[in-house]
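Bug #77: duplicate submission created two jobs. Keeping one. Sequence:
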Amino acid sequence: MFWDTFENSRRVLVIPNYTFGEDYNKDSFVDVLSSQIKALGDDYFWIIPVITPVKKFNLPNIEQKVCNISGNMIWMRSIFPEDIIKLLKGEKYDVIYSHLTDWHISRYTKKPIIGYSHWWELKESNGLSWLNRSRNLIHEVGNVLDYKVCYTNTYEQKKAVIENASEFYNEDTLNKLDQIIQVMHLGIDKNNITKEPSLDYDKTIVFNHRTNSYKGWDRFIKWMEKYRETRQDFKVWAPLLNKPNEWSWVDTTQYEKESYYKRLSQSCVGVTPKQDHMGWSVSSTDSMMCGLPVLFQEQDCYKEIMSDGLTFKNQRELFKLLDEMLDNRDFRMEWSKKGLEGAERLTDVNEENIEKLNNYLTLKVW
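Kept job's structure:
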């Protein structure tokens, strides 16, 4: 078989975390993992459980295993699929790369586990409801204590995990958790960065995040409704709107990746509201590398993306900055260039991340 070519490669079993059921090829987990696999090269062979075959995983050193995994985010975290247990117990592999801390992996294997988690069930981000009557954090932390390392998105997120865990665990356990959880900012491929800001742009305000409440969509659209009362010479582009479009001035057109980047570069400004889970924002770094200025609502995790970025505290400050972006071409171009400079600073992060992963996957730091 084709994977015989990789018989001497280190075999990695991936524990997946699919969260975008509308199109798994656009899932952030798939994006991050596929780029890491390409960068790590042929020294590794990857076994990846999938709900349905994923185009981005059609690589020579990947074997996709179709498994019965729930596409519902809450159910997925709560139900450990029998298909995954069978892989853990029966598949040949050297190390596990887990993107889902909710499953008790070490119960079924003695192989070393490294992890990456962009989502933790924190009181700040996981409200209790009829769908989710309790948080899974106590189990997530308990499982991570068996990992060699678990990367997370931001320092603010790591701090929140440890503070939330202090309700259940003693100081010694929290100190161990602090050692295991390490921060891995998501970098930018330098080949994707626009050389110069586009001189040809229209008055479009971009919301290129998922249109969920934890991403700030509800707040954003209310701001835009209010802003329309003061001026109507702009439109909003929300390509990931997954609910009925009630607004004639909201464009929901979706594009393939290259056209999506071009559309970003030809818009006026992006808005990134505060996010409850305190994670990284790939959609914001997408904007930055395309020369689209981004307005960040004040939050510590966004300072980790662009320490000198444009921020706002409230609606009044947001509207003032939007007016400046829409009306002052020099101001918009200045911040377009600063965004590109911020994107350039994140290119080194990619190389650092790959070195970290390589060291753990090959046991160099264990």
